[in-house]
Amino acid sequence: MDFVVSQILTGLSLSSILLLVALGLAIIYGVTGVINLAHGEFVMLGAYGAWLLQTQFGWNVLASLFVIFLAIALLGWLLEATVIRHLYDRPLDTILATWGLGVMIQQIVRLTAGGELRYVQMPPGLSGSVDILGATDSAYRLFVLGVALGLFALTWSIYRYTTFGLKLRAITQNRAIASSFGINSGQAYRATFAYGAGIAGLAGALISPLKSVSPEMGTTYVVDAFMVVVLGGVQSLMGTLASSAVLGEASGLLAYFSNDTIAKALVLVAIVIIIRFRPQGLFAPRVRA
């Protein structure tokens, strides 16, 4: 029983990180159709923001979350307004542009903060462990799980139950018809990109006490995020949640019997096979003919 509970908790911890990283990408990709290869750099900037606020002002991670969200969301808003908005309906150009932006951000961070590893301390009140049904897990990892689920619930509520969410769904289904009803797709895309970037920054800040912070850390996370979004199905927030859970639990179980590298490779092979036979993803919404 202890083993089962321990593996479930390990899988949930991995799932929460995947959900945090993938949620912003799922919003941007699902609504705007932009394949944002700079998403990992937004995560990295959030981690560096937590490190900077800790070293320069003495703020712990919890105190810095709101500031980091606003700062990265503002950066996303500016990038959409100056670069991305000119490239809609040009997927290859957006791939190249966002890749270039990611490289620029990474090199700017390397030049200003250095290339060495940085570390962020755990919040004092969450540095201990919690016993659950005989198994022990980090209090901070459980906190991250709660935040990830809370952010998902907030995003889902905005998307499903607000006027802004209704406009987003209309634009996603048919932008031309939505525009004919007076919906400003440009403003909606800009707000969506900013919100997705802000969530990515939050993810980086929350992950920073668990991982070392470096200019290259975003590369790994953007791959993980795309795996979650593709497996769950584009335009499906519930699919993102479900695929995060599936991939997290599968990775945790496979890593227990082998190691992290083999587990990631096996998961990637499984995703390739699944997408071969179900390219729309496992949890894509049904579309009426």
From TrEMBL:
Topology of this chain in the membrane: Multi-pass membrane protein
Gene Ontology molecular function: any one: transmembrane transporter activity
Record NCBIfam families: urea_trans_UrtB (TIGR03409)
Protein name per its UniProtKB record: Urea transport system permease protein
Database matches in InterPro entries: ABC_transp_permease, ABC_UrtB_bac, BCAA_transport_permease
Protein family: Belongs to the binding-protein-dependent transport system permease family. LivHM subfamily.
Organism whose genome encodes this protein: Gellertiella hungarica
Pfam families for the chain: BPD_transp_2
One annotated GO biological process: amino acid transport
Record carries keyword Transmembrane helix: yes
Transmembrane segments: 12-37, 57-79, 139-159, 221-242, 262-279
Keyword Magnesium: no
The entry's keywords: Amino-acid transport, Cell membrane, Membrane, Transmembrane, Transmembrane helix, Transport
GO CC terms: plasma membrane
